[in-house]
Specification:
Layout lengths: L1 E3 H9 L1 H10 L10 H20 L4 H5 L4 E3 L5 H8 L5 E4 L6 E4 L4 E4 L4 E10 L13 H19 L7 E8 L15 E8 L5 H13 L11 H18 L1
Parallel strand pairs: 1-4, 6-7
Antiparallel strand pairs: 2-5, 3-4, 5-6, 7-8
Helix pairs in contact: 1-2, 1-6
Length: 242
């Protein structure tokens, strides 16, 4: 069995939707992609790769007084594989034997500790940028789990991982820009997060038990698909009984 980070996270968000897709091939409603975010992602990778080849730090490291550089301990083919959605970093779960994997945006090196720094690029446009680590929004909680999962994959691959992960956030909400002029100004910031990996295996155990069962699991509390279905069903029952 192979489980990607996104499937692992979908189980956390809604065991029922996960079960219906994995056991019965019933897909939830699709959502549009984010091509602008993907373009920002690609440009950041090119930017960091250029500095990686030169062994130089990115200006944002100096801005935040971090003794970091883009990690150059991987050959180009391995880095490309780590970044690809259908390959990624792979490892075997200790408690379940499931092969788990996830695609990274990049890896940095903390030169003070000689540890790998886990990170993810985020593109957004918000006048008031929220702190993901204290937000109650379910998709922000997913950002935290994303870094945790990446860190765990690297630990299983015998990397020495720094205990703090980061989001490199590119925010297009530059109020000083008054005209488009074929460009959008982004402000880049770093947001740090103390990584947690001790819960990942327990969720994998629950995930495997879910797939091995013939019983339908419960819906997730934050699942918009199930909420919409239940509200539609309840409305239909009210209309039929009126």
């Amino acid at each position: 069995m192979k489980i990607s980070r996104s499937k692992w996270d979908s189980f956390i968000k809604c065991p029922l939707c996960f079960y219906l897709l994995e056991k019965h091939k019933i897909k939830p409603p699709s959502t549009p992609g984010f091509p602008i975010n993907s373009r920002v992602d690609a440009l950041l990778k090119e930017e960091f790769d250029e500095l990686r080849a030169k062994g130089k730090p990115h200006p944002i490291f100096e801005e935040y007084k971090l003794n970091f550089v883009p990690y150059n301990g991987l050959d180009e083919e391995t880095l490309r594989k780590y970044r690809h959605n259908f390959s990624g970093v792979r490892a075997t779960s200790k408690k379940t034997g499931i092969e788990i994997y996830g695609a990274l945006d990049d890896l940095w090196l903390n030169k003070d500790t000689d540890e790998i720094v886990v990170l993810d690029y985020k593109a957004t446009s918000n006048k008031n940028l929220e702190d993901y680590t204290t937000s109650s929004k379910h998709y922000h909680k997913g950002y935290l789990r994303q870094l945790d999962f990446y860190a765990y994959l690297l630990q299983l691959n015998d990397f020495k991982v720094h205990d703090t992960g980061y989001w490199l956030i590119c925010n297009a909400a530059d109020q000083s820009q008054t005209s488009f002029d074929k460009k959008v100004n982004f402000k880049t910031t770093l947001l740090s997060y103390k990584l947690k990996t001790d819960y990942i295996e327990d969720i994998l155990v629950d995930l495997k038990a879910c797939l091995d069962s013939d019983k339908y699991p419960k819906s997730g509390q934050d699942c918009d698909n199930c909420r919409w279905y239940n509200e539609k069903r309840n409305l239909g029952e009210k209309l039929r009984s009126s």
